[in-house]
Specification:
- The protein is an alpha/beta fold.
- Helix content is 41%, strand content 18%.
- A hairpin with a 2-residue loop joins strand 1 and strand 2.
- The longest helix is centred in the first third of the chain and has 14 residues.
- The chain is globular, with a radius of gyration of 17 Å.
Length: 273
Amino acid sequence: MALIQVGDRQVEYEIEGRGDPVLLLAASWWPLDTWNLSGFPQLRDHYQVVTFNQRGIGASSATPEPYTCSSLASDGVALLDAIGLRDPAHVVGFANGSGLVIKMALEHPSRVRSLILAASSPGTPASQPPPSIRERDHIAHQGFRDFIRNHALNDTFAFTPATYAAHPERAQALADALWDHQGTEKEFLKHADARQGYDAVADARQVRQPALVICGAEDDVQRGLSTPVRTSHALAEAFPDVRLHLLPGVAHMTFWENPEPAWAVVKDFLSGV
């Protein structure tokens, strides 16, 4: 990992490989360590792979204002500028990171060559209660550390029961990566509220770059008003230029449950755009 000054903020990032640039954007509260488990190992031999810790995560500076999908997407562009990568990038988004990718494609279209959206979140309407209200309740019940780690340590939505039983080390490694450089509870809640006020499917209708929508076929965890499987089908209908792929035997952790088949689909898509 390295540190760079981007405007008045310190940003912690990682870059490996050579080739066309690929930017990885997980859920905005996820530390970049998660991509070292899955993402960098599969892509760095053929692409220049970049990711970073969002505001308030790891060694990246927090800022006082509320975070939004648009502001966090712009942070990705600002980092690419700061490290001198000005060619259009393939941008991979996971969970609400998919919303950031769509915003990048809409608001900075010259910087996005293609979109890869995994386990996509639909966004939370502005008319709904802030997501942080529900998250505070979960944290109060579980404690912050267990709440974060339990995003991975379960076979009810993160992993399928078969994978969780056969490969418990995958869930354990992901739980460790989610916690080890996690931000504060306050920062987590700000990132939770960044999910509010955007509509991924409505935004997708305006995107002109090619898109891959990928999702575990068993990813039926409720996300706001939808599930990733239902959102993936809706996105596939919305994007003008799109490929949809559902991974059999995979739940929410698209790239971490069974990494190689997922990345094979991504690399096949990238080879044609």
